[in-house]
Design a protein that fits this description.
Number of domains: 1
Protein name: Histidine phosphatase family protein
Number of helices: 6
Largest sheet: 6 strands, mixed
Distance between the termini: 32 Å
Order of helices and strands: EHHEHEHHEHEE
Mean pLDDT: 95
GO molecular function: phosphatase activity
CATH architecture: 3-Layer(aba) Sandwich
Pfam families: His_Phos_1
InterPro entries: His_Pase_superF_clade-1 (IPR013078), His_PPase_superfam (IPR029033), PG/BPGM_mutase_AS (IPR001345), PGM_Phosphatase (IPR050275)
């Protein structure tokens, strides 16, 4: 069995600015995002961690480094944890997408398996399959250990609903806060959820 702490990265300017679709754009943390990363790093310093992995995008790496530091660990990056490719919607807010192509956006939200995001981006099952492949590999690499993984909002939500065998379109009903902590265990190819989107570390 491998225990995973799955985190969303800290705040970026695009999160703050009407929650723009960041996707593959390499946006750094804001000052608030850095504080959030430090807070979650301090919180998790009280728990045993054996490894820390992150998306290669700087916002995830920065957050992961704050988590790894108290444990004396080095962050390993994996491209399979990168945020969803939003295609032509990259950098736009939801109201902007609605104004430009509201019907296409609605169709994608209802059927993200067959319709790629932003016409040229990824589908939900493409995201789920690459994340699942990554986490399965990590579970084999770290048996009976605890691993922190820092990724992104849409990636984490799609992985969550997929692991629960829920329809992929339902991922939009989950809200994961910046540096929110979710906990699940991987055992014999089954996923058991223990906690979802805890923000206790941000209350101080």
């Amino acid at each position: 069995m491998t225990r995973f702490y799955l985190l969303r990265h800290g705040e970026t300017a695009w999160n703050r600015d009407g929650d723009r679709y960041c996707g593959r754009s390499d946006i750094s943390l804001t000052d608030q995002g850095i504080r959030q990363a430090e807070q979650v790093g301090h919180y998790l310093s009280h728990y045993e961690l054996d490894a820390v992995y992150a998306s290669p995008l700087s916002r995830a790496r920065q957050t992961a480094e704050a988590v790894a530091l108290p444990h004396g660990l080095k962050v390993s990056t994996d491209h399979r944890l990168v945020e969803m490719d939003f295609g032509n919607w990259e950098g736009l807010t939801k109201p902007q997408i609605h104004e430009l192509e509201g019907d296409d956006w609605y169709n994608w939200t209802q059927n993200p398996v067959d319709i790629p995001a932003g016409h040229t981006g990824e589908t939900a099952d493409q995201v789920y399959n690459r994340v699942k492949e990554c986490l399965k590999e990590l579970s084999k690499r770290h048996p009976n250990q605890t691993v922190a993984v820092v990724a992104h909002n849409t990636v984490n939500r799609i992985w969550t609903v997929g692991s629960l065998r829920a329809p992929f379109a339902s991922y939009r009903y989950l809200r994961f806060h910046n540096t929110g902590i979710s906990v699940f265990e991987w055992e014999r190819d089954a996923v058991f959820w223990r906690q979802m989107n805890s923000t206790d570390h941000l209350r101080n």
